[in-house]
Write a structure and sequence with these properties.
alpha+beta, Arc Repressor Mutant, subunit A, ScpB_csome_segregation
């Protein structure tokens, strides 16, 4: 039987640092939240020293390319891909528009997943929906319908749950009072990835 290799490793061996930078950019986009350097090195299957070079190269590209709207933020041993400060007003405008509008079907879907399965990690929400949910989760956080807290079992992972405001708006004392709560919680459990 032929040994399977990681596609990232194949890309790196064929394209070097440029492909590692592209893999890093994809990872940061998909993750959407601060992620630890150890976790990145593990996912990309590179050593810390090599990862440092890749991050520096990516950071330089983002800073020197004026056609890019993103920057790399670093806090302690975590990094996150974020919008350049030059576009802060655009971000504020989008958030204000989102708050004024009714909840979209995608937002309601995400809110339902959180309501019936919270506390739940963003990766599980993305898996269940089949798409990146970062923007929708931010929208729900801004509206005060959900809350985010660190996962006590996994560093650098956040769990999402409905807020007290959500329960208040729904006229509920607790999450378990949602219509057919146990039925839908059990149903979604069957679709969750096995750990």
């Amino acid at each position: 039987m032929e040994e399977q290799t990681n596609p990232i490793i194949n890309k790196v061996s064929n394209g070097g640092k440029n492909n590692l930078i592209a893999a890093l950019e994809s990872l940061l986009f998909i993750y959407g939240e601060p992620i630890g350097l150890e976790k990145i090195a593990e996912l990309l299957e590179v050593k810390q020293e090599e990862l440092g070079e890749v991050i520096s190269g990516f950071e330089i590209r983002l800073k020197t390319d004026n056609s890019r709207g993103l920057i790399l933020n670093r806090i302690n041993n975590q990094i996150q891909l974020t919008t350049k400060p030059d576009f802060q007003k655009l971000g504020e405008k989008i958030i204000k528009e989102e708050i004024k509008e009714n909840l979209t079907p995608a937002t309601l879907e995400t809110l339902s997943i959180v309501a019936y399965n919270g506390p739940i990690a963003r990766s599980a929400i993305d898996y269940l929906r089949g798409v990146n949910s970062g923007y929708i989760l931010r929208n729900l956080l801004v509206r005060g319908l959900i809350e985010r807290c660190p996962d006590p079992r996994r560093p650098y992972v956040f769990l999402y749950n409905v807020s007290f405001d959500f329960l208040k708006h729904m006229g509920l004392a607790k999450q378990e009072e949602l219509p057919e709560y146990q039925k839908y919680k059990d149903l979604v459990e069957t679709f969750k990835p096995q750990a």
